[in-house]
């Protein structure tokens, strides 16, 4: 039997991240410990410069910790390089950015299949993309270009793109930061639906108090440290 579900989705052990800016050294994370369990829905809050983005980047393997270890479902992310790192990210991580980052010259459906294009998949890429576009309510726009969509619609395309490889974790860095309140709420509803439906672990960095208030797990950061983790009983 697999012990997949017994492993934390994310285990951060004594992680310090130091950036060297010319002569100065800046510790973006200072001896951070954190465990997130499979299927958790987590928000990360804290003032600007608290280290929230750095935390997500380290989980995704975009950045390496200066000290300490990051495990994702038991995989030591900081030890991976090159193809192994790319394969890890493909299988485990979907990333949603504040600025959507869609390719303007490609249609909606083409943007969604980009991550799986160079890969052999057991599913039909276009069928899967259509299913995901249906789930985010955008099937009717599959042949539109991103520039023809509203901000909220573009973020929904970005969510479908993040989901196409069936990742175990979605990391979202201020996914509603560029959207008005009600559009932002819809994006969060979609992420909650994905969390319920597929048991995908979701970690969202947000400045939005309303979103964080309703989150079952809340992580509070300040000055590169985790101040508190609150889990609803
Ligand atoms: N690539 C980098 N090079 C140098 N310093 C960096 C880099 N990325 C982040 N930092 C520094 O690390 C600290 C933490 O940054 P980070 O972006 O993680 O904070 P944040 O909590 O996400 O802030 P915000 O809410 O403003 O996005 C900041 O002081 C920042 O200046």
UniProtKB/TrEMBL annotation:
PANTHER family: ABC TRANSPORTER ABCH.1, IMPORT ATP-BINDING PROTEIN. Keywords: ATP-binding, Lipoprotein, Nucleotide-binding, Transport. InterPro entries: AAA+_ATPase, ABC_transporter-like_ATP-bd, ABC_transporter-like_CS, ABC_transpr_LolD-like, MacB-like_ATP-bd, P-loop_NTPase. This is ABC-type transport systems, involved in lipoprotein release, ATPase components. One of its GO terms (cellular component) is plasma membrane. GO terms for molecular function: ATP binding; ATP hydrolysis activity; transmembrane transporter activity. Residues 10-233 form the ABC transporter domain. It comes from Caldanaerobacter subterraneus subsp. tengcongensis (strain DSM 15242 / JCM 11007 / NBRC 100824 / MB4) (Thermoanaerobacter tengcongensis). The gene is PhnL4.
């Amino acid at each position: 039997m697999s012990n997949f579900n017994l492993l934390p989705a994310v285990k951060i052990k004594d992680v310090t991240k130091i950036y060297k800016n010319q002569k100065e050294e800046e510790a973006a994370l200072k001896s951070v410990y954190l465990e997130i369990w499979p299927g958790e829905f987590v928000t990360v809050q804290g003032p600007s410069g608290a280290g929230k983005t750095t935390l997500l980047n380290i989980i995704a393997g975009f950045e390496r910790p200066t000290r300490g270890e990051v495990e994702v479902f038991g995989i030591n992310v900081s030890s991976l390089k090159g193809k192994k790192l790319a394969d890890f990210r493909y299988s485990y991580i979907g990333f949603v950015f504040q600025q959507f980052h869609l390719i303007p010259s490609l249609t909606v459906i083409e943007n969604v299949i980009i991550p799986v294009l160079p890969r052999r998949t057991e599913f039909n890429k276009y069928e899967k993309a259509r299913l995901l576009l249906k789930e985010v309510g955008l099937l009717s726009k599959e042949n539109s270009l991103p520039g023809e969509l509203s901000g909220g619609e573009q973020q929904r395309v970005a969510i479908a793109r993040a989901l196409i490889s069936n990742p175990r974790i979605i990391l979202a860095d201020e996914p509603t930061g560029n959207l008005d309140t009600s559009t932002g709420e819809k994006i969060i509803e979609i992420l909650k639906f994905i969390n319920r439906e597929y048991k995908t672990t979701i970690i969202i960095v947000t400045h939005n108090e309303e979103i964080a208030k309703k989150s079952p797990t809340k992580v509070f950061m300040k000055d590169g440290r985790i101040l508190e983790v609150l889990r609803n009983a």
